[in-house]
Amino acid sequence: MPDSYIIEVNSQTAGIVVRSQGGYCFFASSDRFYRLEGQLFRNAREAERAARKLVNGDVEEAA
């Protein structure tokens, strides 16, 4: 299983997640996704869902 994944939303790179102890840590690639910076997710799919929610305006849901 890979140790890192690129997270994209609508063909825009949101950031990467890197496997760490306890899950995958998010590193934002732009200010638009900075709210997710440093958050720990169970898997890459969960991080992608959070980034999509942020883009769609579901700010409270994403954090």
The tally of beta strands, per DSSP, is 4
What order do the SSEs take from the amino end to the carboxyl end, as H and E?
Answer: EEEEHH
Largest beta sheet, briefly?
Answer: 4 strands, antiparallel
Binned, the helix content reads 25-40%
Produce a short descriptive summary.
The protein has 63 residues and is an alpha+beta fold. It has helices spanning 44-55, 59-62, and strands at residues 4-9, 12-20, 23-28, 40-41. It has 2 helices and 4 strands, in the order ββββαα.
Could you characterize the architecture of this molecule?
The protein has 63 residues and is an alpha+beta fold. The chain has one domain. It has a 4-stranded antiparallel β-sheet with strand order 1-2-3-4, with helices on one face. The longest helix is centred in the last third of the chain and has 12 residues. The model has no long low-confidence stretch (mean pLDDT 91).
List the helices and strands and how they pair.
Blueprint: E1 4-9, E2 12-20, E3 23-28, E4 40-41, H1 44-55, H2 59-62
Features:
single chain, about 60 residues, alpha+beta, four-stranded antiparallel beta sheet, 2 helices, 4 strands, about 25% helix, globular
